[in-house]
Amino acid sequence: xxxxxxxxxxxxxxxxxxxxxxxxxxxxxxxxxxxxxxxxxxxxxxxxxxxxxxxxxxxxxxxxxxxxxxxxxxxxxxxxxxxxxxxxxxxxxxxxxxxxxxxxxxxxxxxxxxxxxxxxxxxxxxxxxxxxxxxxxxxxxxxxxxxxxxxxxxxxxxxxxxxxxxxxxxxxxxxxxxxxxxxxxxxxxxxxxxxxxxxxxxxxxxxxxxxxxxxxxxxxxxxxxxxxxxxxxxxxxxxxxxxxxxxxxxxxxxxxxxxxx
Length: 261
What we know:
By secondary structure, the protein is of the alpha+beta class. It has four helices and 17 strands.
C-alpha cells in the first residue's frame, strides 16, 4: 500500500494524518498503524488519524493510538486535524466535525496555527483517594504533585495505569502542580504507554479537576504548561456541570511525504 501522509504536531504531541476522503485506506490493521507510528521503523508519532467524508459534517476524525488500537478522543489530535482540514481547503476559519465522542466545533486563527477546539461537556468527577477521575472524551486520572519537573512520570504513571482498577481499560495519568496563574502538567498516556509532550484531553481534565478542587465557579480560564509548550483551557462551571469547554493551542505541519507499507 502506497500512502501520502502529513505529520502534524500540537505542543509536541505529534500525529500522522492521512486524507482518506476517497477511502484509499480501508484495511488499516493494528500492525500497520503501529509500524507507521514507530519512531525507528516508521514515520514516528503519538497517534495516527484518518480524515474522512461524512454527510452533515465538514469531515470525520478517525483516531488510532500509537499501539495500533483505535482510540478515544484526542484533543491535540483534534486540533491538528482541524489545521489539516484547513490546509486541504475543506474549511476556512470555523468547522464542525465528528469524532468518536461526538460532534465538535473549532475556530482557527487567521494564520491557521492556533486552534480553539470545543470539547464535550462534563458532569461527573469522581475521586480515587486524593486523585480525581473524569472523562473529557478519554478517561483521565489527575493527581497534584510536588517537584513535578523531576518526577518519575513514566514509572509512577505506568503503575497507576496498570493497577487492578484501571488495567483492563486503561487510563491516562496526569500529574500537575501550580505554575503561576495556571498549572504545569505531565501525562502518561495509555495507547502510547509512555509519557508524551502534551495531552489535550489530559490538560482539559486537569483544568476541570482543579476548578472543582479549588471550588471555582463561573467562567474560568486556565493556562497550562506542558513539556511541548503552552495550552489554554477555558470553560464555564456552575457547580454541577462544566460546559463551553475549549482546548486552545498550536497546531503545525511538520513535514509531508510518501510511504509504502
